[in-house]
Amino acid sequence: KKILTKWGMVECFVLFFIHLGTRRVFLGGVTQNPDGPWMARQARNLCICAEELAEKPTILIRDGDKKFTEQFDAILESEGIESKKLPAHSPNLNAYAERWVQSFKVECLDHFMVFGEEHLRYIAQCYADFYNRLRPHQAMGNETLMGERPPPIDEGKFDPKKVERQPILGGLLNHYTYKAA
Fold it and tell me: What's the rounded mean pLDDT across residues 114-135?
């Protein structure tokens, strides 16, 4: 993503991971310079996040970008996560990641002028939280990935005045809840 800084437009990178079993998205980080040490830190952070999952990942599927260094792979391997590099020009082999990028761009980034790394980090984290906790996912039975299922509403007693809107990112994204009596 190109962002606006005091030095003009610069390219910024958002590193994310998707757990294929749960479809949960984890943000690795945001930077203008994804060098080897930064990528190594992200690999260590991923290993910490993986420990918190009920089903620890054993394989990381990644593209062939040179940013994924041998050190990155070695850190993952030391934690029992095998890093598998995809062949060039094979977006269908990483369809969940490609779809998340498209959703993030269309539902979110296309509506913002991003003013720096911190701003992009904030937007990405808000969107990832919305995606994981509140957004229903058709492939997962229209359930949210982490949130609780709302209680059923008796259609005969439905009152539209009790519907509350929770704006996210200034109202770009919205979540609606029904106030209890």
Answer: 90
pTM for this predicted structure: 0.82
- Please report the pLDDT score of residue 52 as a whole number: 79
On the CB side of 155, CA atoms within 13 Å amount to 0
Angle at 141 between CA 24 and CA 147, to 5 degrees: 45
Distance of CA 60 to the CA centre of its chain: 15
- Evaluate if residue 7 carries a pLDDT over 60: no
Torsion angle (degrees, nearest 10) of CA 141, 145, 150, 154? -10
* H/E run at residue 152: none
pLDDT of residue 9: 78
Q: Which residues contact 90 (CB under 8 A, 6 or more apart)?
A: none
DSSP symbol at 155: G
Closest alpha carbon to 46 in 32, 57, 31, 55: 57
